[in-house]
Amino acid sequence: MSRAADDLKDFQRFRPKKLPVEEPLAPGHRACQGCGEVLALRQVMKALGNNVIVVSATGCMEIISSAYPQSAWRVPWLHVAFENAAAVASGVEAAHKAMIRKGRIEDKNTTFLAIAGDGGTADIGLQALSGAMERGHNFIYVCLDNEAYMNTGIQRSSSTPYGAGTTTSPPGKKSIGQETWKKNMAAIAAAHDIPYVATGSPAYYIDLMNKAKKASLVKGPAYLHLFSPCPTGWRCAVEDAVQTGRLVVQTKIFPLYEVIDGQYRLSRKVKKPKPVSEYFKLQRRFRHLTEEDIALIQERVDREYDRLLELCGIAPEE
Amino acid sequence: MAKRVGIEVSLAVSEAVKLANVDVVAAYPITPQTHIVEHLSELVADGDLDAEFIPVESEHSAMSTCCGSSAAGARTYTATSSQGQALMLEICYIAPALRLPIVMSVANRSLSGPISIWNDHSDMMMSRDTGWIQTVAENGQEAFDLTLHAFRVAEDPRVLLPVINNLDGFTLTHVIEPIEILDQEEVDRYLPPYQPQMRLDPENPISIGPVGMPEVFTEAKKAQDEAIKNAKSVIIEAWQEFGDLFGRYYKPVETYRTDGAETLLVTMGSLSETAMTAVDQMRANGKDVGLVRIRLFRPFPFEEFLEAVAGAKQIAVMDRALGLNGAGGPLATEVKAALYDVPERPYIWNYVAGLAGRDVTIENFVEMADGVEAAAADGLPAGYTMINVRE
Questions:
Q1: What parts of chain A have a pLDDT lower than 50?
Q2: Is residue B141 part of a domain?
Q3: What range does the domain containing A272 cover?
Q4: A110 contacts B204 by C-beta, under 8 angstroms
Q5: I need a surface site. Which of A56, A70, B187, B379 has the fewest CB within 10 A?
Q6: Does some domain include residue A318?
Q7: Which of B64, B66, B204 is opposite residue A128, by nearest beta carbon?
Q8: Computed over its alpha carbons, how large is the radius of gyration of chain A?
Q9: Is the minimum CB–CB distance between B68 and chain A shorter than 8 Å?
């Protein structure tokens, strides 16, 4: 049961003053100003280094990094379609296994990374991801969650939070906006009994990079769910992307945790939580919410956080 | 030395895949493809084939996994059928555009609805414009031989395109035939180890599958079009070499007793054997009928086809799929397009027959030959008939 824990025995944390200088994802890509998603991706790539093969789903990160004849990728990169990053990565990983075993290539301990947005993960790509995790491929799957289909113009996904306005969940006289609660993808990944699951936010970059590194060290599937602030889609100021990524943790809306061999561990206990309204007020996608709406959301956030504490074996403070 | 054995055709195809020493098989079960992948998984389980067998959760993932595997530099195989191919179709368009030399067997089956597991060519027609090279087997020996030919052609640096081997579901996949199974040394002489031209390698990073902006998209498609057109000469060359090594020669278009034939039947797949028997019978009765069988469906062998039908007065084209465009079957549409520029072109009548396992008998082929002659004599505008419909 403690296989992943064994794999992580010699894990060394990143230090702020000794971050890797490599940038496997080069600057000069076409992301929007203030993009928190490409920031999270850059941190993942810095943590993983150059011995990696990246499989990208169709989406913002694919579009902004690959318009031929330019490419922002300094590591091998493959894009096939939208919903199949996990399946494509399965093939890359299995091919290496076979070719190494048959002596066709040398084993260089390469990391296989699949990246997709929340739509490509929680909606259209969920089946392919579930299959790849169930089969136990040795790969990392990173969901860069900006909480809607941003690349097509801010349509709602199952990862859009309750109450948020998007172009297909517009608030109106008869609607609050998004009428469903955000799908808990990390819990779905953890339910596959894979060795490593973690959440991260680019505002806590050392934590995020440590988790990406750990994901590469465990044998078997690892899933990272990364909060990816999107000023364009969330209607917030470009300079507030990082602050948004910080507040979402400080309000307990998006807690940072790991699930190692099925054991939940809180990465950062929120000692003095801020009210959810602090997070909402920076983003125009929430500005139509009434005090009652916000109270309802606050109640749910508190309850979910307590449930997480329980999973981590921590007594809720009251 | 090659051994002639009685073996189910599906198993013979699996044996060919084993002899090709594939690295990765990713597949999802669907009738009537199942025996191929079951046997491959047995070969892997017994250590007779050193490959990763990936039992994916859908055909969409099967083709996606194959793309990943092939891009990583592994010799890659899958097999499917009908609905399964429909589900993977999105990725079937992408694999040839990425120039990934995947090999796939398609156990041809009707497309739903109504849902049916039985054999026709609807799935082959569905994927006709995906950009895959496609061959069509007539019997078990061809299904075996064409599988090895597929790897040889797909991986040729002058080609680098995926190849589908079509074989009729049940009428081929589930029958036991005497098949000459080549031995490993023979196969190795024909099919060299796979040397990928490019692969995902951290020491030599490349980007595969970038965005094609309007400035480059048309050029990318032009390159792909050239690639599949140029593939034909390599396909023919690889068949020639196969024949020189093993004595079985294949061509894009086969003819049977076409000398002096005024009327020709045009077929694809296993029913061609019934058609040959019908031709023998009609010839014995003094009727000048011959058979033209298309083995290479993509790229369509225009020159070879025109040569095969030259001199004929009328052609009966049998389709095992319905185009639902109001003009009969897709193969007839293709044949008509091929003949458009020929000044002295033969008269064409299209017969849609053998849908979803419906029998097509010797008598039916006689009926087609008689029918096209009568229609030509009556000067009817070209049309089509569905054979064996209960009305």
A1: 1
A2: yes
A3: 3-311
A4: no
A5: B379
A6: no
A7: B64
A8: 19
A9: yes
